[in-house]
Amino acid sequence: MTKQLSRRFLAMAIVVSIYGLAPSAPGQSVGAPAEEIKTVAIHNGDLLVRASTGAFSLLVAGGLPRSVPVWSADGRSIAFVQQTSPETALADLVVVNERGKELSRVHVEPTGAGFSYAGMRFIEEIRWVGAGSIAIRGSINPSQSQYYVFDVRTGKEIRDFIDDASSAAFSSSGQVAYQVGSPHFTKSVGGSPKLYVDGIYVFPKDSRTLDEPLAAPAWSGDGISLATITSELSGTRHNVVIWRSGKIFEHEVRISSNSRIGMYWIGPDLYLTSRTASDSVVHKWHVVDDASMVAEVPPNTAIDPAEAALQLRASLRRSAAALDVSKPDFWCRACLLTRLPRVNK
User: Fold this and answer.
1) Average pLDDT of the chain?
2) Which residues are CB-neighbours of 263 under 8 A, at least 6 positions away?
3) Angle 214-342-134 (CA atoms, 0-180°, nearest 5)?
4) Residue 214: pLDDT above 50?
5) CA 171 to centroid of chain Cα atoms
6) DSSP string, 87-150
């Protein structure tokens, strides 16, 4: 197999693994979806949906404006944020089915006697956490976010925490990893980032002073392994850090200070990509067991194997934007199209 063909098949494999899409048939473009993709989006505060490339139809209209809609993993429900009276709450978290029937509504930071908040100023993102919970991220300041996690069925809040990097990661088993202690606004002043899992401090266990950010943590698909990347304040040393079964593994990597870095799991393998204007390198580690991980040289280290998947999602966004809608989210029957964790942009 030629080098060009092997690169193409590697990119296709990444798209299949991350997006659950079938490989392209001869003559099709790489990453072309083999199944219908559903889109939800906002137009003038109304909630719209469409199937594949058909026209958008109105799902929920009237009332106060809505924002940041997100499909559930099974593609049967949509969660979104709706404005409400300031005398009631910061906003409402609403869940509807595919026909627009309201299934759940929760006040986010309800106001009134006995309630006092000094954190979240506005909601920036919502995401489904497993089948029955939804996480809301809201800005406190440009580098710090508050998170609430709600049980959809009961409407009760089940988590409340602050992430100093605004990049908390939720595993398939419901665990959450987040960062505390990052310096705000000035890298060398104000503290050193620390990684927590479910409120338990896991890294670093020594007295090192780390630069910020640690990176957006990334869980493996089975919810057992967690990865991030650290750097010393000098910026000359970078370590990939893997937390698994209570153990920490560190692997030093050489990364250019001006590179765009990506990090994601494919099965038991962790990939770290480093891209500059003139070069692209892919690092890979393979989970052996709870006691060790092995660094490997992946095939075709001159390409970023996630690029095809990123281009697919960007293409879907452009297609939606051309139809004068905002905040689109996409779902295909085989899987939920997830965001790929990025260390920097």
Assistant:
1) 78
2) 215, 216, 218, 227, 228, 229, 240, 270, 271, 272, 273, 341, 342, 343
3) 90
4) yes
5) 11
6) TTEEEEEEEEETT--EEEEEEEEE-STT----S--EEEEEEEETTTEEEEEEEEETTEEEEEEE
Q: The tokens of 173 are what? A: 């088993």
Q: Are 213 and 194 in contact (CB under 8 A)?
A: no
Report d(CA 185, CA 40) in Å as an integer: 35
- The 10s digit of each residue's pLDDT in 82-120 is 999 888 899 999 999 999 999 999 999 888 766 666 678
Q: Which tokens go with 257? A: 């200070």
Specify burial of residue 136 (Cβ count, 10 A radius: 0-12, 13-18, 19+): buried
CA dihedral for 129, 169, 162, 126, sign (positive or negative): negative
DSSP 190-239: S---EEEETTEEEE--SS--B-S-----EE-TTSSEEEEEEEBTTSS-EE
Residue with tokens 């409400």: 84
**Confidence class of residue 167 from pLDDT cuts 50, 70 and 90?**
confident
Q: What percent of the chain has pLDDT over 70?
A: 75
Please compute Rg for the chain using Cα positions: 21
The answer to whether the pTM exceeds 0.70 is yes
Per-residue DSSP letters for 264-315?
EEETTEEEEEEE-SS-EEEEEEEEEETTEEEEE--S-TTS-TTHHHHHHHHH
Residue corresponding to tokens 């480093």: 274
CA distance 158 to 166: 19
Coil, helix or strand for 68? strand
Q: Which residues of 205-229 are buried (b: 16+ CB within 10 A; e: fewer)?
A: eeeeebbbbbbbbbbbeeebbbbbb
pLDDT in tens, 290-338: 878 888 877 665 555 566 667 777 888 888 888 889 999 988 765 555 5
What is the per-residue pLDDT for 303? 57
